Structures are given as structure tokens and as C-alpha cells.
Predict the structure.
Amino acid sequence: MEITASDQGRIGLGGFLLEHMELALPLQSLREVLPCQKLSPLPCPNPAVIGGIDVRGVVIPVLDLRTVLGKAANELPHPCVIIMVHRGHVLGLICSGVSGVFEVPQDELHLIENTEKDSALFQGAVIRKDTAAMVGLISPDALFSLPMVPRTQDPEPQRSAPLDSNDTHSLDDEDRQPVMLMRCAGVAMCIDTAVVAATLMAPSIRPSALAMGHCKGVIEHAGMEVPAVDLKGFLGLGKGKEDELGQAFVMNTPQGAVALLISEVIDVVPTRKSAYLSVPPFASPHPRLFHFTLPSDALPSELMQRLHGSPTQYLLLDGEALRREDEIRSLASAVRQPGSDHALHGQATQAFVAGADDIANRHGGQPVLTFMVGGENAVPMGQVQEILPCPADISKYETNTALLGMMTNRGRSIPVLCLSELMGLPRPEITSLTSVLVVNASDVLLGFAVPTLKSIASAQGEKALQLGSGTQASGLQAALQRRRLIQMGAGQDKRLLPLLDLAAIAAAVTQEHLGCQLA
């Protein structure tokens, strides 16, 4: 396998996933990644050739490496096809997704010697610095030397040029940067491939307690449930519609992974940093995330010919700055195991707390969490210790009380009460949207189940709200009636909401032994 290193002794690789295997090919062998359309049968005796894919009128054979390696070829949930090129021919590889472009020092590439180097599929391994994953290196020579595998002549040989075929000057590593071009509804953007851990062609978004604001739910990826964020909305460029968010890319942070919802991945291309154009700070709702644009005339000419009606420029999203955003980091810390009954390490609360703190810092006022119980209500964020999904298999009690039962979280048993019943409303059904607000009452943890979380925001003012008939209530009833009105929003969105004192309610519950005495 021919591996080309830069003048600084670094090797570019393109990573991809095949079920639980992390693999990579030399960057110069990768052409593009496409959603796996319906494959056409091919008269080929090699069982690893699973069909052909139509790429702009050219049929390209598609290979399943699992068959070559003698592994079971289970159905992939959202397969894609990597189009690779080698010595003037192209071939497709089925995969679960891509894991981004990365570089490794040449001396950290551990190659395996083989006397039949052209037939040795597995050529070595490398440890990725960004994910600490061990990645198996696949030999393009070996792939194209497999017996009875048809090869298609490269219909676009000009695309093998490192940049524009008309650009003959040599680029140094400081000027070269590969980016992923993408479309986010009507906005054309690009991002440094170094921060892209994987691309998801048809992500399935599941309901979650995290689904509020720009977070639409969770996506299962690499054995975890990661938050799915509407990137266009997060960037302040307008809310993305559901039918416009058909793909996603996964970004790793020190706290965990986040999936950014977009419309489509267009291509991965090398660019020249010297071609970027500066963006004035006033021209972007998030100046710290957009410093440059990539003009279309700096892209390879063959790509421009392929992308009819391409925009004149792509907003260059600063991936490293995006990683440092408080809301992104906080959501990333809430990654869960699929099907788990509680947020991993109880970190879900941090996403809401950090988001509320960010809003309060920018707008002033008291950060509050709003939720639906009858109508929209609010609670001060400082009173909520954790926010957890309500487990469907909660240990239910059949008592004539508001006590739903018990749930376990990180080695603790937490009594869960139905806040709707406490407030005199019918008990709602527990669904995937039901959340438990955990409150500490004198070192005793109590959970209050609410049907739906609404938002985090900043309350601008308070005034007393009188409930009841005017008779003097005490204990729990007094705590339930001790509400104040807070002002939310501004202008046409201005509204008043009741602010509940959950800390006082929890204290009253523990004092009155609610589970035994409440009728």
C-alpha cells in the first residue's frame, strides 16, 4: 500500500465505521460518501460484491468488507457507501458511517509486513489522538486485487487532483485544510473535518427529557444516545423544519458527543486557508463561531460543475469554538446508554443549568425551568438537583396518594410524586416525555414527575399570586398555594407564569409523610 506523507511527516487518513469496526483508508483514495440507495444486482461470483450503485449515471460495484473478512453481514440500520478511487478505477464500500478525516505522524503508523502485500487487506493499525480509538488500516491495493471483483474506470479522473486541476502551485501544510461542505436548510456552510467524528445519513430521533430548545431529542450512535441539536436554530439562522433535517454529523467534545442536525452533507474537499474571506462581526448572529467564508471559486472546478446552482460562498463554522459552547458541552455531558432509565452520572441537569445560566448572563433575571402541568408553570433552576427521564418500569404503588412509586438512580432510591395530582389535577400517563425533577429536602431526595418539559428562560419580575379561598392553609397545602407570578418573554411573547416553590413542597412532603397520610 502506497502511503504518502506530508513534508512534516504526517499522513492523512479517512475513517469509517463498519458495525463495531473502526477502519481507515489513505485520504487520497477517498472520493465521496453517499447514502446507500437501492443496489442493483450484478452478475459477479464474488459474494462480497453486494450490488452496484448508480453515481451520476455510472454503475459502481459495492463491496461488503465483512464478507471478505469472513464475518456475518448483518443488516445495517442506515448504511452509506464510500466511493474510493485507486489507479484510475473506482469501487464502493458499504459502511455504517464515516468517522472523519484525521492525521497521524508517520512514525505512529504501525504497519504489518506481508510477503503478499498486494493481497493483505489489513495493513496495520493506528491510535487516533482525538478519540483514542484503535483504527485498522485497509489497503487499497488489496481491495482492488480481490479476485472476481469488477472495477469501474474512473469517470471523473480530474477529481483525483489534490485541489483544482488548474492550480499547479504546491501547497504547504499550513495552508491546506480539508472541510466538509454541507447544507443546513437554505444555508450553505462548511466545517473543518477534524471535528467531525461521523456522519449520519438518516438519523432516527427519539424523544428525550433533553428535548427542549434547540435539542430535538437523542440519536443512537456508537452504542450511546447522544443529544440531537438543530444546528441552524442553534446558530441563530432560523429554526430548521423537520423535513429539512434529514442528516447529521457527530462532534466529540471532552464531555461527550453531540449530533448536529443538518439537511445534507455535500462533499469533503481540500481547501486553501489563504482563500478564506473574513466576516465582519456584525454580519453574523454568532461572531465567535463564524470568522470566515469559503468562496465557491476556491473549490475544485469539477465540484462546481457537479453542483449546479451552487452558492457563491459557504459560511465556515469554527468547529473548535463550537465545541466550547456552554450549551453544546452541557448537552454532551448528558449522553446516555440506550434504554437506560436515567441519565449517565446524573449529568442531564447540567445541560439545563448551563443553558439557563447562559440565558441569565445574557439577559439578566432569574433562570427558571418551565414545564406543563395543566398549563405552563415554572420552578427556579437552583431548586432542581437533577432532571431524569421517568422510567417506564417505575416501582408503582397502588395507593390513594400522589406517590407514584420509587426509582433508582446512581445507587439511590428516590420517591417519585405526581406533581399533577398534588396540584389537584388528574394523573397523566407516563410517556417517554415524562421527566422527574429531583429536589433535595433536608438531605432527602424527592422526585416530582411532570408530563413535559417546556423551556429554560430568564424571569424578569415577580409578584404574589393568591390561591385558595382565603382561609389560612398550613403544611403541604400552604406550600402548594405559595406561588408567585413571573414575567416571561417580551413584546408579543410576554406572558405571566406561576412560579412553584418545589423546595417548600418537598420539605412539607417529608414532614407530613405524604405516602401514608395524603388521602
